[in-house]
Amino acid sequence: MRLHVPVPRQGAPSRASSRQRSNPCAPTAPRAIVAAVAAAVALSFLLATPSFAAEDEQPEATRTATVDRLAQSGEWVEIQVTSDDEPFPVRALPPVLTIGDTTFTRSLNPADGRLETLIFLAPAKSFAALETGASMRVFYALSTDADARGVARRAVAAGDADVWDLGAFDASRLTVDESTDHDSTVHDAADGGSTRR
Questions:
Q1: Which long-range contacts (CB under 8 A, 24 or more apart) does 158-163 make?
Q2: Which residues contact 35 (CB under 8 A, 6 or more apart)?
Q3: Cα distances (angstroms) measured from residue 36 to each of 26, 30, 50
Q4: Which end of the chain is more exposed for a tag (fewer CB within 10 A), N or C?
Q5: CA atoms within 13 A on the CB side of 175
Q6: pLDDT band (50, 70, 90) for residue 53
Q7: How far apart are CA 153 and CA 162, in angstroms?
Q8: What share of the chain is helix, strand, coil (3-state, %, to 5)?
Q9: Does the pLDDT at position 78 exceed 50?
Q10: DSSP state, 4?
Q11: Mean local confidence (pLDDT), 88-92
Q12: Which residues are bridge partners to 117 per DSSP?
């Protein structure tokens, strides 16, 4: 008894190849593997990449300082801060104080010349608008407002700057001192240097 096995004619498509051609969108095994690997890599990249903070967020602190005094004299409020470890460095860029989303760029050194202490001058109207509990930072930058915070964050990320954390703002500590004399050298980050007040 002979078995007859049909042999497809040369050039005739097999059923499998016909089905493969009938659905050109179906991915082959290698393509599916490549697509899965690419998706996994993209997901891991998104999880590992830090999101960029908004420009009005505070830069990350690398040091700490303490608010020693809040005193109003006329149209100005003195915010005196002292570094908890090393003195504030003498740099080409002037110091900047941020309280929440408000930036103060005018500062001076105390009369005795102590480098670990800075006195920032805030307009009384701006000070009155500050929210209790807002985070406070001191850093060095030649710019103002939200851009100064962006400069500080980028510098800290690059390891080129220090930022002092002063804790939470407490407006209840404000006192009134009419005897304060502001006729001294004031550092102004907005002006790019020091001026006489």
A1: 161/62, 162/62, 162/63, 162/89, 163/59, 163/60, 163/61, 163/62, 163/63, 163/137, 163/138, 163/139
A2: 27
A3: 15, 10, 24
A4: N
A5: 9
A6: very low
A7: 10
A8: 25, 30, 45
A9: yes
A10: -
A11: 89
A12: 82
Place 83 in a pLDDT band, splitting at 50, 70 and 90: very high
Reported as half-sphere exposure (CB side, CA atoms, 13 A), residue 74 has a value of: 6
Q: Residue 7 has which token pair?
A: 């042999």
CA dihedral 110, 115, 116, 117 (to 10 degrees): 20
Q: Which pLDDT belongs to residue 32?
A: 64
- How many Å apart are CA 166 and CA 137, to the nearest integer? 6
- Beta-bridge mates of residue 107: 120, 187
Report, as an integer, the average pLDDT of 1-11. 55
- Kindly report the number of other CB atoms within 10 A of residue 103's CB atom: 22
- The token pair at 84 is 């908890």
- Tell me the β-bridge partners of 195: 186
The pLDDT assigned to 14 comes to: 52
